[in-house]
């Protein structure tokens, strides 16, 4: 099986990342200039208004619209000292107008609604998510095999990590050595320490941390060791990618390669044609059938048609083969 990650960043107005398996587009992510993801960004913000009826606060973190901070998203470390061990106080006892706090975006602005914020910070890495000022130490629920969970918990416990630096090990951490996990943890701690240093140097509202660009996010979240190569068509993004691999997983750095052909990278691997097909509501199946996808207000309807399929012996066999091919496409 051939598996590649293609990073198309040669056009400043649009970045695209595709994962291709045996020539077939498996994953596609697109980021437009001016519409970069803000979810995950961390800011030094100032409280503008405390709403006791909502048990929430509106916070200025530098965007056009004020962010929304619910009381359930306020870290106990912000509570007044007298209340830290006596349960959660009311929001008016925690926050006041003009108070400066660290916030992170958990849901981006939508329509007339401002971004949803939290003060429970988290920093995603390659193998784990760091949660500063937290005692949570665990393994992702996506790792369902108990044996793997036990091994990861045992490995992490042997690292003697700080008590107030929580973490959740991601699926990418399965089978990794202690040194690799520790390297990722140390990288995230340095990142957090840099955020705290910048916090002391600026006045709210100010951005302290920006979530990685599309290329680095895709590598962090989707790169797997069964990939043959990571091809990049832009010199700066190529160098950033090499640096990220050197920092987080140097043993795989040789897989990062620069696409130097004159033919655009997505055209070279027939990705443009497959992207065009994504906008059509009808998809042809290998044996002559098709599926038709129609979104409605309540649901997305998928109609499976056997079409000219007649090679199977009997209607049930034809239906089974059609449904298997349709399931693969969906």
UniProtKB/TrEMBL annotation:
GO cellular component, one term: cytoplasm
Keyword entries, A-Z: Cell inner membrane, Cell membrane, Endonuclease, Hydrolase, Magnesium, Membrane, Metal-binding, Nuclease, RNA-binding
Leader sequence segment: none
Coiled-coil portions: none
All residue ranges annotated as the S1 motif domain in the record: 40-120
Source organism, top-level taxon: Bacteria
A biological process term (GO) from this entry: rRNA processing
A Pfam entry, by short name: S1
Record-linked SUPFAM superfamilies: Nucleic acid-binding proteins
Known cofactor(s): Mg(2+)
Gene Ontology molecular function: endonuclease activity; hydrolase activity; metal ion binding; RNA binding; RNA nuclease activity
Xref: PANTHER family: RIBONUCLEASE (PTHR30001), RIBONUCLEASE E_G-LIKE PROTEIN, CHLOROPLASTIC (PTHR30001:SF1)
Full protein name: Rne/Rng family ribonuclease
Source species of the chain: Geoalkalibacter subterraneus
